[in-house]
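Most newcomers find our protein records easier to grasp once they have seen one. A record pairs a protein's sequence with a compact description of its fold. An example says more than a description, so a record of this kind follows:
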Amino acid sequence: HVWVGMWNTKQLHRLDFETGATLKSIPISTRPYGLAIDSEGLIWIASRDPNGGVSMVHPEDGELNTFQSPAGENYGLAVDPFGGIWFATGWSSGGGIARFDKVTQQWQVFSHNQYGATRGVAVKLDTDDTGQVVGGRVYTAHSGSGHVTVVDAITQQMLPVISVGGNQGPVGVAIDSDGHLWTVNQNSNSA
């Protein structure tokens, strides 16, 4: 199904894939800004509401819990296959990313102030020759510069920073089906 978050009305809507008709609406306690679905089918919500935190929603049972982010507002998010939910912390932390462990419900915050505000987040899976997931990398776009920071999804160690050139201002990141990293660059109107 396709899920859409409604900022003003604080709701999630499940849409029919073919017709776009609303099949279900779920009221939530925060204003959604980004959504991601984990391997268990739980919907994770990033809210830019100053006190919104992050929410976990079951697609049938509704909102299960809201967790206050230690980094303030949340912008983009992505889910890794190792129990980590990654949130770009926007402007509030000066440029960083926070990882929420859904098992321990503990936060880990990474500061990348030297690269500017963080917005988009994407996870790339690393697989072996048999297709088994053996690792992953988390990419975060820094709109205040031309950089994308990289964190190892398992060890949570910083990897070399990627420069997309000059002051491109990448706001979104994505991994394509060939494993290539793409950025959407606000300052240069480019990808």
About this structure: The CA atoms of residues 15 and 158 lie 38 Å apart.
